[in-house]
Specification:
This protein is α/β, with parallel strands linked by helices. 34% of the residues lie in helices and 22% in strands. It has a seven-stranded mixed sheet with strand order 2-1-3-4-5-6-7, with helices on one face. Strand 1, helix 1 and strand 2 form a beta-alpha-beta unit.
């Protein structure tokens, strides 16, 4: 049903109901390659990784549809609510293909911060040109939500130090 576009969904520690809802939401526009991964050592108790074969930006939201996007965010928020506020209870990673490759890592222990980070993904296309300025071309852009700044910020490019814009002091506080 997905018109040849294949999204990859990898999960562990996720209930069958949660997998089914993700399948219904994503399966409406993508063919799905689903796999259950083993539990990571010392990692999150629940993990969901979604690899989308489309580029991130305003065009994605228009193409994917607001209702479907809101449903996916509601599912992720519900998954967090069901697991509580324990550190490491849920990690979500959404990877977008394209140039640049864009990823969002949502892993805050705080439910309010987790929900806030999901809501603010919609606004990242407005700030992406600023985040791309001065970065090496061709590298991935991995975003983490800052607990103190309450904003999405990219991790520094590989080889960037702690003082780089969006470095660990501002971007990794959501853990």
């Amino acid at each position: 049903m997905g018109g040849g576009l294949v999204a990859k969904v990898e999960y562990c520690g996720v209930s069958p109901w949660e997998v089914e809802v993700a399948h219904e939401c994503l399966g409406a526009v993508f063919e799905l390659d689903e796999s259950e991964a083993g539990m990571p050592e010392g990692g999150a108790a629940g993990r969901l990784r979604i690899g989308l074969p489309v580029a991130f930006g305003d065009g994605f939201f228009e193409w994917f549809g607001l209702r479907r996007w809101e449903r996916l965010k509601a599912l992720l928020g519900e998954m967090k609510r069901r697991r509580g506020g324990r550190a490491g209870s849920l990690e979500v990673r959404i990877d977008f293909a394209g140039e640049p490759q864009v990823s969002f890592v949502v892993d805050s222990a705080d439910r309010g911060l987790f929900a806030n980070s999901l809501e603010k993904i919609d606004y990242v296309p407005e700030t992406m040109p600023h985040h791309l300025a001065g970065r090496p071309a061709g590298g991935p852009l991995v975003y983490r939500f800052g607990a103190h700044t309450r904003r999405w910020a990219p991790e520094p490019p590989r080889g960037g130090g702690a003082g780089a814009p969006g470095g660990p002091s501002g971007a990794r506080g959501a853990r």
